[in-house]
Amino acid sequence: MVRALEWIDATGTLQLIDQTRLPDRELYLAVRSVDDLVTAITSLAVRGAPALGAVGALGVALAIAQGEAEAWSPERLAAEVDRIRQARPTAVNLAWGVNQTWPLAGQGVPAVLARAKQIVAEDEAANRALSRLGADWILRQTGRERVRVITHCNTGALATTAWGTAYGIIHELHDRGALELVYADETRPLLQGARLTSWELVRDGIPHVVQVDGASASTLLRGKADVAIIGADRIAANGDTANKVGSLALALACQRAGVPFVVAAPSTTIDLLTASGDGIEIEERDGGEVLSFGGVRTTPEEAQGYNPAFDVTPCDLISAIVTEYGVVEPQTTPDPGLLARIAG
Questions:
Q1: What string of pLDDT tens digits covers the 344 residues of the chain?
Q2: How many CA atoms lie within 13 A of 36 on its CB side?
Q3: Residue 316: HSE in the Cβ half-sphere, 13 Å Cα cutoff
Q4: From the candidate CATH numbers 1.10.443.10, 1.10.10.10, 1.20.120.420, 2.40.160.180, the one assigned to the domain spanning 5-122
Q5: Which of the residues 233, 240, 271, 311 is marked catalytic?
Q6: Catalytic annotation on 233?
Q7: CATH 3.40.50.10470: does it fit domain 126-342?
Q8: CA-CA distances (angstroms) from residue 36 to 2, 63, 84, 87, 328?
């Protein structure tokens, strides 16, 4: 299994696979400074909510080690750690990971690393558990022996510490012989589905096709898919869910087609302090990402780009939210305390 991130004890570095270079090159980055890490996060060399949680936790160790080497003041160290925490605002896991290890900073790098490595191990275990629960729910709900799945963006080992969330469910269905085909949305503008999800599906020998994002609604309404499964970057207390832009359109199409729409994420993605999706900050990226393709301008020079990285799917469009602690059904159980049961 590919590992998106790994701490190398011998060198005190964080090793990341550079996801901006896939699928052409499998290139690994050796991250040794806060600047390196923030650049890796903002450039999407590392991405995905669970993976960001892990690099946030490990980033505190990196910052402490750099601060010791460069004689930072306590104020400078706190400011550098906050740069990591704030590098991407929509995904709650990044700040969560930082906040898990920062209180241990006074005990030194070994204590911080011990907790960070525990987070990495816990994430893989959570992903595998939620994958089993999600596969069980989908097979019961659809009544099919083999299902056809639509997924959006990338939620596999590249987006986590290992295995995957929505992708993990797909992998679990495949391992059970219960998967017929995956429709992987290309995921504009940076093609995480076409570049990353397809790359993982090929490595895992899972049958799939890549489709343009605009094809998903037609695929669903023509009866070619039985379920849609996505991940999440933040789940508000009422079940509203932020995920890669395009997820909302997929949910609306599922509602019209009568197809289950499933959100899969570890419990750390649930933000009980944010009441609803209205309180989720949506990251807006450089508009230039939508004005060009492969480094070549595809729009008039006068055109401006609008590039929200995420959108919010209201809870009443979500058939099931799956974490390692269980499955809840927001459409059929409107309950303000619904998510507390699967938030750990």
A1: 788 999 999 999 999 999 999 999 999 999 999 999 999 999 999 999 999 999 999 999 999 999 999 999 999 999 999 999 999 988 789 999 999 999 999 999 999 999 999 999 999 999 999 999 999 999 999 999 999 999 999 999 999 999 999 999 999 999 999 999 999 999 999 999 999 999 999 999 999 999 999 999 999 999 999 999 999 999 999 999 999 999 999 999 999 999 999 999 999 999 999 999 999 999 999 999 999 988 899 999 999 999 999 999 999 999 999 999 999 998 876 666 778 878 87
A2: 16
A3: 2
A4: 1.20.120.420
A5: 233
A6: yes
A7: yes
A8: 22, 11, 10, 12, 39
Q: What angle do CA 42, 43, 47 make, to 5 degrees?
A: 75
Domain 5-122 and domain 126-342, same fold? Reply is no
Distance of CA 332 to the CA centre of its chain: 26
> DSSP for 264-328?
E--GGGEETTS-SGGGPPPPB--GGGGTEETTEE-S-TT-----BSEEEE-GGG-SEEEETTEEE
CB 99 within 8 A of CB 90: no
Residue 308 is encoded by which pair of tokens? 């929200």
Nearest-angstrom CA–CA distance, 136 and 145? 11
